[in-house]
Amino acid sequence: MQRIRIEPFKLIGIEVRTTNENHQAAKDIAELWQRFMGENILEKIPNKEDNTIYSLYTGYESDHTKPYTAILGCKVKDLNEIPEGMTGKQFDGGVYIKTSAKGDLMKGLIVDHWAKIWQMDMDRAYTTDFEVFGEKAQNPSDAEVDFYVAVLE
Description:
By secondary structure, this protein is of the alpha+beta class. Helices cover 20% and strands 39% of the residues. It contains three helices and eight strands.
């Protein structure tokens, strides 16, 4: 685990409101990924900084047991042009705990790592948490994904 400061950033992508209750988020977020890939959303995002995909969690009603919004998208230079059906958001940044997981994306890598994060002793801020799918996540059966969890300063 590494404590780092994340600078504010802007993101454009697609979103879903979900909850971890009854494993609903696993289903909703999997469907969001299918839509992201199936509709080639990556290519439709304007002004993106690069092709790194962010899976972002924000708008928490309380903690990880209550509803929140999941957004799949890319960092962008500005929010001047948001395509229809997509969302654009500005995030404040802040202090984060960074962890990484390596393994098969199709075998629960993300869900399993979040289960570990939920057990960790940290003062979570429940502002915006995210995963980064960069170069090391290109091979789904042997991916390395970075997780960033907002904590209180």
